[in-house]
Amino acid sequence: MKLEGIKVIDMSCFLPGPQLTTFMSDHGADVIRIENVNGGEPNRIIGPKRDDTTVYFAATHRGKKSLALNLKDPDAVEAVMRLAEQSDVFVEAFRPGVVKRLGVSYEDIKKRAPHIVYVSISAFGQDGPYVQKPAHDMATEAYCGVLSLNLGQDGKPWNPAIPAADMLGSMIALSGVLMALYRRQTTGKGDYLDIAMMDSVFASIPNQLGTTFANKQPPDIRNERTGGGYAMYRPYETKEGAWIVLGAAEIHFAINLLNELGRPDLIDLCRLPPGTGQYPVQRYFEETFKTKTKAEWVTWFEGKDISFAPVNNLREGCDDPQVRHREMIVEDERGWEYLGIPIKFADEPGSIDFAVPGLGEHSEEILRSVGLSDDTLERMKQAGVY
Predict the structure, then answer these.
(1) In this structure, what are the phi and psi dihedrals at residue 322, rounded to the nearest 5 degrees?
(2) pTM
(3) What's the rounded mean pLDDT across residues 214-218?
(4) SS3 assignment, position 331
C-alpha cells in the first residue's frame, strides 16, 4: 500500500485528527494513537455502541494501536520523544499552547527528530485574535459566515449535517502531510503544519463568494445559485411529504424536463440569472411534484437526461446500489457496517483493518519497542503513567 513504512503518532481527539490518521492507516501507515490514560479518546463514549464499542470510535480508530499515557509525567514525555525519533508524522489537536506546556511541541520534538512532519489542527490556527477561543465545527462555521448559508425551511440557520470544518480541516491536513513527506525525500527535513479549520472552510467556498466579493454584500441565499435561486437546482416536496431534487441548472436539462412536462413556455425563464425571474418556474415545479409520490417520480425520471435524485434518508443512502458497488459501506464478518475507502488506487489499493484497539491495549508493546527497561516500565506502571 502507498503508505507502508510510514509511522504516525496521533495525539488528537474527536474528528479532524483521527480521521486524517484513519485515511493514512487505510493505506498502510502504522498509526499509534496516544490517549489519556484516564478515559482515553472521547469518541469511545460518544453515540450508539455495537457491543462495547461506539460506531464513532470504530470509524475513526480502526487499524490503529493505542498507547495510554499520563503526559504530565516526565517518563511519559520521554517515551513520546523516543517514539517520535522512530516516526514520520506527529498529529495533535489541542488548544494552542497545550503541547508546549506538556513538552511535546514541534520545537521540543524536532530537537530529537528533525525529520518529523508535525501537524497542529485547531479551530482558528496557532496565532491571531481568536487563538484561545474554544470552538468545534459549528462555531467555526458560524464565524466564517458559512452557517448563514445553511438555512432550514423557516429560513433560519441550523446545525449543518456534515461537519464541514472538521472534515475539510482533516482533508487539507492530509494534503499538507503528503506534500511535506514528498519534499522530505529531497531535503531530509520535516516541517510544521499549522492547519486551521476556519482557513479550511474559507478555502472550500470559491463558488459561494460572488456577491460577497463583487458587491461587498452578504448574499440573499434564496436567490443564489447554490441556495435555491435556480428552479432547476433545488429540492421539491412530493405528494406524500417526501422530497426530490433537481440537481443541475444547465439549460439543456431545463429544456428536456419542461418539454417532457409539456411546458416549453417556461424554458426561457430558466435562462435568467438565479432569483426572482425564475420564481414562476419554481412555483410550477412545486405544484407539479406534489402530484406524485417520490417513488413515482423516481420511475418517471428513469432513462431521461435530466439531473434528478430522490432525497434519501441516511439508511437509504447507505443501501444505495451505487454506494454499495463502490464499497463505501462495507461489512465485517459480524455484519457490522463501516465506511469504506474513498481514495481508490488501481495499484496498491487501501485495505481496512477492522480491529479497534482497547484503551492502552498496546502500551507495553510500544514502550518496550522504544527501549524502556523493565525497571522503568514497572515504575511507570505503579505510578499510573501508563
Answers:
(1) -70, -40
(2) 0.93
(3) 93
(4) strand
Q: Which amino acid is at 29?
A: A
Residue 87 has pLDDT above 90, yes or no: yes
Closest CA to 330 of 115, 70, 62, 103: 62
Which residues have CB under 8 Å from 361's CB, separation 6+? 65, 66
Q: What pLDDT score was predicted for residue 227?
A: 85
Q: Where are the beta strands (DSSP E) in 41-140?
A: 49-50, 53-54, 65-69, 89-92, 117-122
What pairs with residue 49 in β-bridges?
54
Mean pLDDT of 112-122: 98
R_g of the chain, CA atoms, integer Å:
25
Give backbone dihedrals phi and psi of 91, rounded to 5 degrees, phi first.
Answer: -120, 130
CB environment 324-335: b (16+ within 10 A), e (fewer): eeeebeeeeeee
Residues 6+ positions from 96 with CB-CB distance below 8 Å: 120, 122, 125, 126, 127, 131, 132
Backbone angles phi, psi at 334, to 5 degrees: -85, -10
Grid cell at residue 374: 523493565
CA dihedral 171, 118, 31, 135 (to 10 degrees): -50
Domains defined for the chain, CATH in brackets: 7-203+356-382 (3.40.50.10540), 233-318 (3.30.1540.10)
Distance in Å from the first CA to the final CA of the chain: 32
Residue 21 identity (one-letter amino acid): T
The cell numbers describing 26, all together, are 487505510
Q: Is the pLDDT of residue 222 over 90?
A: no
For residue 87, which of 193, 13, 27, 6 has the smallest C-alpha distance?
A: 6
246 pLDDT more than 90: yes
For residue 155, what pLDDT is reported?
A: 83
The x, y and z cell numbers of residue 151, run together, are 438555512
